[in-house]
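Sorry to interrupt, but I need a hand with the structure work. I would like you to pick a protein and set down its sequence and fold. Please put the record directly below this note.
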Amino acid sequence: MDPSGTKEIEPSPVLDRCFSRHTKDYAALSATPDQFDAFVKAVGHMMETEPNYSAGDLARIHLPVAIVQSERDEFIKRDHADYLARSIPTADLIILPGVSHFAPLQRPEEFNNEMLGFLGKVLS
């Protein structure tokens, strides 16, 4: 991801609830249940340091790709999702209305229906 595609994170009740749930889920499911803070730090580092793929790099992707953007995403700018969808020839841009970055937790049925629709198209 291009680091310019991320937003400055603003504290909010939604983020507090989601991170609280993530902390509990991580503790219940992870082989290192007490390392959630280290995991979050590692993800942040990855976002800051991983390759910045150019439009040319993205244009060479020829597998089906779903670019899923939430209408109220706290982390990823809509312009970045649009850029990815324009740059990857096989990309479908799916906009999820009324949800945050955590759409699979907020509205799992809606999210899953979109993913199943995408997979149905890919596998047909």
User: Anything to note?
Assistant: The first helix runs from residue 13 to 29. Residues 8 and 49 are 16 Å apart (CA to CA). The domain at 3-123 is CATH 3.40.50.1820 (Rossmann fold). The mean pLDDT is 91.
